[in-house]
Design brief:
74% of the residues lie in helices and 2% in strands. The longest helix has 30 residues.
Length: 422
């Protein structure tokens, strides 16, 4: 089996401020223990200056990893879950490069990423990420006892077995925040915290299914943040995009689109690289919202604007690019433009193979097969793509997994079509 890489489970977020010793961070009210990393680098048959160059490069990569984890933590504290997810994805990529697939740091990074996905309600991907994290962290169960317990609790919640306990935790957190909010109304000594509590309560009420209260708290938070960041358009930009994502989750897609456009207007006259990167976020969000509205032509326009930014050297990120190419391919698929769909699926596949992302590659081979089968009516080519899907999934899951059986049924269907043709 080829080396397993999880970037497909994750789309572009926990901080490690110390490289030595055991560091404890609070994340979502849980203790996350970062084990000490005793990393030694061995160099043979290399000149001294080459050794120093390699050490410097590794040091730079480790610094980037730590910065990405800090960035993800910062986004989390502000309720910017999409941005946090992207930061943790990039951190995961760096961790795989620096520490390796089976290292404890990689396990903790996966755990962090799974928590973000849970907050976003993406339980399917969270489950896959958690399961991989458990495999890594279980190699030192004593050191990772608390983290493993938290992951198992999250998996029970996903399976429905820990629903009551999880609901009690959310209820207790909500009551504590409501109490803090009442106290803050008397003092008004921390406007940023006051606004953030409203935003967090909105997310909690959304989880509980109380959409009216969720919307009320999020709207109040938005008004407070707009006053707070009146002179800080870049901070307000992220608030508007996060609120847009919240409205999107409520299926208020047109209202979400209004938020995204307002965020773009804030940086209309800013030509810096930072602003260009922010425009990518808004264009990407617009594309996704238009897909949900089934306005695929509009979605394609904004995805293309996003891709033109992300393909520039200053912003290039293979993980994000692969995901965006895939999304563009899906838009062409819905438009029944098979050749263009295959072109972008192939671009995504090329990057996923470079990243050794076998799960993502198998999904793309399947979708390329479906494109050939249902749109282009090219049954031979469709069969070849499904065979590649089957090979990868058997290696990943074994012969009896439901994902394998699904592909086998598709191949049987294609074979029946080919027999009719011949």
């Amino acid at each position: 089996m080829q080396k397993y890489f999880l970037s497909s489970l994750v789309r572009g977020a926990l901080s490690l401020n110390r490289a030595r010793g055991s560091t404890v961070r609070q994340f979502l009210g849980k203790s996350i223990v970062f084990p000490a990393q005793n990393i030694s680098f061995k160099f043979s048959n290399t000149r001294n200056h080459e050794q120093e160059h390699i050490k410097e490069r590794i040091g730079r990569e480790a610094s980037i990893f730590k910065a990405l984890m800090n960035e993800g933590q910062s986004h989390m504290s502000r309720g910017r879950y999409d941005d946090a997810e992207q930061s943790f994805i990039k951190a995961l990529e760096k961790s795989l490069q620096i520490f390796g697939e089976e290292n404890q740091v990689t396990g903790i990074t996966l755990y962090s990423l799974g928590n973000v996905m849970m907050l976003k309600g993406d339980k399917g991907r969270a489950k896959q990420v958690y399961e991989r994290a458990i495999k890594i962290l279980s190699k030192d169960p004593e050191k990772n006892k608390e983290n493993l317990a938290n992951i198992k609790k999250a998996l029970y919640t996903i399976a429905g077995e820990g629903h009551t306990e999880a609901a009690q935790d959310i209820s207790q957190k909500k009551e504590a925040l409501l109490k803090e909010l009442e106290e803050m109304k008397k003092s008004h000594n921390d406007e940023a915290r006051f606004a953030n509590i409203h935003a967090i309560l909105g997310n909690i009420y959304l989880k509980e299914g109380n959409l009216q209260e969720a919307l009320a708290y999020k709207q109040t938070a938005l008004g407070l943040f707009e006053k707070l960041y009146k002179a800080d358009p870049k901070s307000l930009f992220y608030v508007l995009n996060e609120h847009g994502n919240f409205l999107r989750d409520l299926k208020r897609f047109k209202d979400a689109i209004v938020m995204y456009f307002k965020s773009i207007d804030l940086i209309a006259n800013d030509n810096s690289n930072t602003a260009e990167g922010m425009r990518f976020v808004a264009y990407h969000n617009l594309g996704r919202a238009y897909v949900l509205l089934k306005e695929h032509g509009e979605a394609l326009d904004y995805f293309m604007k996003a891709i033109r930014i992300k393909e520039q050297r200053a912003f290039k990120d293979d993980v994000v690019l692969s995901s965006l190419y895939h999304e563009i391919g899906m838009v062409y698929f819905f438009l029944r433009r098979g050749r263009e769909a295959l072109e972008y699926f192939q671009k995504s596949l090329d990057l996923k193979e470079q990243l050794n992302d076998q799960v993502g590659a198998s999904r793309l081979f399947q979708q390329m097969g479906e494109c050939c089968l249902f749109i282009l009516k090219d049954f031979e080519t469709a069969r070849s793509y499904f065979l590649q899907t089957l090979e990868i999934r058997k290696a990943l899951y074994g012969n009896d997994h439901p994902e394998v059986k699904n592909v086998e049924r598709a191949l049987a269907f294609i074979d029946a079509k080919l027999q009719k043709v011949h």
